[in-house]
Amino acid sequence: MPDASRRDDAHSITLTDGTATRTREAAPVDLVPVQELHRRCSLGSRALRYHAGKSGLSPAEWRQLSSPERGTTLVTAPAERTDHIIAMTNVMRTDQQGVGELAILVEDAWQARGLGTALAEHAATVARREGHYALAAAVEMSNKPMLHVLEKLDARPVDTEGPVLDLRILL
Q: Please, are residues 2 and 27 in contact by the beta-carbon 8 Å criterion?
């Protein structure tokens, strides 16, 4: 169970249907609920997020994602059920100074309700706070929902060769 003090820093998001959610920084103890999130996501959703049908994260992968030295990972839960993670957002450092990498996984049942867009907007705020001037996202051309989200943030293609687009959002 996440440390209660971390919940005080949670960011509220209200979905298009009025459902309230809370997004906060992930902690190492969130591995089990994040693994449960992955199990509830379809193979297709996981393939679009990871560019492969990844079934979950290993403890070592989670340590990297939840390490503040590597970037910021956020987890989202319904406001009334904070132990039930429904989305994970990553704003990770890259080899390019000032450019963060954005990735989002939203549980299938919570998609198409405005959550992905709100999480991307919040991720941009987090990235600015961390000193980034841009966010990069590698998105498969078939991932129309994520392309739509990034279009709302004025993402521009950097590389359009192949099935994966390299997009940049200037912050």
A: yes
Helix axis angle for 115-129 and 144-152, nearest 10°, is 50
3-state secondary structure 30-62: HHHHHHHHHHHCCHHHHHHHHCCCCCCCCHHHH
Q: What is the mean pLDDT of the chain?
A: 92
pLDDT digits (tens, 9 = 90+) for 77-123: 999 999 999 999 999 999 999 999 999 999 999 999 999 999 999 99
Interior CA angle at 82 toward 18 and 121, to 5°?
Answer: 55
164 by Cβ neighbours in 10 Å (0-12 / 13-18 / 19+) ranks as middle
